[in-house]
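note to self — DONT lose this again. spent like an hour looking for the file last time. sequence + predicted structure for the chain T wanted, 191 res
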Amino acid sequence: MAKFLALLVFLVLAACQPQGARFHGTDVTGVAWGRELQLADPEGRVRTLAEFRGKAVLLFFGFVHCPDVCPTALARAAEAKRLLGADGARLQVIFVTLDPERDSAELLREYTAAFDPEFLALRGSAEETRRAAQEFRVFYEKVPTGSSYTVNHSTTTYVFDPAGRLRLAHSHALGAEQVAADLRLLLAQRY
């Protein structure tokens, strides 16, 4: 009888728990990577993810000379922020360059500001960039193109909740409405 009552209590309590959020992005909550980032902003100040606690964070790795994926990802982030309305103030978008050789601090500042003045660009040395990409499982490689080069890279946008935990990986295929819906869910949770 005691086992039956214990099972009944367990089932009742389980039924009272809220259903898990249904995200458009891939839920990566609890992964053992993507926890640290320490790179300089365009003014040379070293920034970390911990500074943005209290806000949701969209983190994307790319480069200024990217012809399609990077501007599309940043435009999508700007539209998602707009769709959030007043909650857009609780969102920080961070763009990390994978091409510190060409992406100067000034160029990064201008590039991100073209999408939203509040977007933040970060850069590091080649070694710091490699470590940051490795921490976030970002693939990138320099590919010669005639007298110049391009940078092939993965296209995932990472989403952190206001408690500073990596929660979602957004594919490049998601639209701004889906990104905004995921952000609304994260911003509505209590931390």
